[in-house]
Design a protein that fits this description.
Helices cover about 45% and strands about 10% of the residues. Strands 1-5-4-6-3-2 form a 6-stranded mixed β-sheet, with helices on both faces. Helix 7 crosses helix 9. The radius of gyration is 18 Å and the shape is globular.
């Protein structure tokens, strides 16, 4: 779930050679759809210490470093892809801390992910930037967890980070993230349970949440 990316590891791409860099950037540009992110960053400061974005280019990371960002949190998969290789090399060059914290846009967060997010937000150096690929779903749920777990924002308000203005579509598969928070508000909050108490209790069942959401989506 949480990795601190090892220095020098760049997945399956050799960025030490010109040919390897061309291969990595071609894959990043077309297969990872990075051409869409050259001008559109989907960037939003959600507090004075945390900004959410889509997958940044190296020159965008340099711009964020110039604005004071100290830590980059990637919510995508582990090493192996061109985006990870390029981002890691850029962070090493710029002196940015890079943390990989895997999240899903199609699954409710696990108990371990919620508790891990709390620990992450309590230990990283700020200001920080968090991102997934598009900056919509995984960035949205993680931003909501940040606001609630670190800033004490109520879940009802924090879940506003899952919104179409950030390119999140609540009626698609990623709507299971909204459904998770809505279930807490409907079933647990009226009983006086905090969100963390609910997540740590037997009542929190990600498999049930996913099945329930799928059932509601069927025509």
């Amino acid at each position: 779930m949480r990795d601190t990316t090892a220095q020098g590891a760049t997945g399956g791409f050799d960025l030490t050679t010109a040919a390897g860099r061309r291969q990595a950037y071609a894959d990043f540009l077309w297969n990872d759809h990075a051409y869409l992110r050259l001008a559109f960053r989907n960037a939003h400061w959600i507090s004075d210490e945390l900004v959410r974005t889509n997958q940044p280019w190296p020159h965008q990371l340099a711009a964020w470093k110039a604005r004071g960002v100290a830590t980059v949190i990637s919510l995508r998969g582990g090493p192996g892809g061109s985006s990870q290789a390029i981002e890691q090399a850029a962070c090493e060059r710029l002196g940015l801390a890079l943390v990989t914290f895997r999240m899903s846009s199609r699954e409710p967060p696990s108990r371990e992910q919620v508790l891990g997010a709390r620990q992450l937000f309590d230990t990283i150096a700020y200001p920080a930037l968090l991102h997934c690929k598009s900056g919509a779903d995984r960035s949205g749920v993680m931003s909501a967890l940040y606001l609630h777990l670190r800033k004490g924002v109520p879940i009802r308000e924090a879940m506003g980070q899952l919104h179409p203005r950030y390119l999140h579509w609540p009626r698609g598969q990623a709507g299971v993230l909204d459904h998770t928070f809505e279930t807490y508000l409907r079933e647990a909050e009226p009983q006086g349970m905090s969100f963390l108490d609910w997540v740590q209790s037997p009542l929190y069942d990600p498999a049930r949440l996913k099945a329930d959401y799928r059932g509601r989506r069927r025509p």
